[in-house]
Amino acid sequence: MSMQRFPVSGAGLGLRREKINKILTAMQEKNLSPVNFMEVAPENWINVGGSFGKKFRQFTEQYDFVCHGLSLSIGSPAPLDENFVRDIGRFMSTHNIRHYSEHLTYCSDDGHLYDLLPIPFTEEAVHYVAERIRRVQDILQQEISMENASYYTPAPGQEMQEIEFLNAVLEEADCGLLLDVNNIYVNSVNHHYDPINFLTQLPADRIRYAHIAGHYNEDRDLIIDTHGADIIDPVWQILDKAYQHFGVFPTLLERDFNIPSVPELLQEVKQIAAAQNKWQAIPPATEIRA
What we know:
By secondary structure, this protein is an alpha/beta fold. The chain has a single domain, classed as Divalent-metal-dependent TIM barrel enzymes (TIM Barrel), CATH 3.20.20.150. The chain has helices spanning 20-28, 50-62, 82-95, 123-140, 162-173, 181-191, 195-200, 233-246, 262-280, and strands at residues 11-14, 37-40, 64-68, 100-103, 106-108, 112-117, 145-147, 176-180, 207-212, 216-219, 222-224, 251-253. The protein has an eight-stranded parallel barrel with strand order 1-2-3-4-7-8-9-12, surrounded by four helices. Strands 5-6 form a two-stranded antiparallel sheet. A hairpin with a 2-residue loop joins β10 and β11. The longest helix is centred in the last third of the chain and has 19 residues, at 262-280.
């Protein structure tokens, strides 16, 4: 599918309802200067009208937007919900949303499971998931991206490593990658691998944009991906290595819980922008060391 490599540019911020009034005020006062694009979960905004709908329209008229879905359940054994995919397409068209991404997980079978569960890392699962991704792209008539997901216990029957499974799905589905920097760190601690080695095996030409977020340390070797805390230095360092290796790509701050004040959120967006500016004029490296 032909497209520009990146659907958006610069540093982004996830738009959450809890902060919409304060972020709207900051936008009206022109105090959102580090923010170049925004992201929403479409499930939270499809068919929303009234005051929330009007406020959302004010944002989409001034900012480029991407969607990051919660319930496509691309790895589910249940049939793909094609009507839901069409709802996504109409929502994107209505608001001129640039790109749609989802988790490389599943969250439903006969009913919704209310969690993002890992897909078995098998050849059979690669073919199954890739076919479903291609079907979504056919319905939407555009490329979508899949996010490297955090997981805590591997699904039974694992035949491949996480990086092999992820790359095989991206290749067979011919889709984009939403690179979640925090998930690389979380999984590297929980499953005992080198995050930089994982990072540098990703396909540069499939990166469409990235997430960076905070997490919760449950134990010394168990990290939970919460998006509910400040980003820690090792995660910033992985982002820095990614820009060094791949070149700069659009990157968005995710904060879903314990959301601080708008000025505090913008400090982390500014840190993304500073890292991007640092590497903007430097050609990507062919090799990096941890």
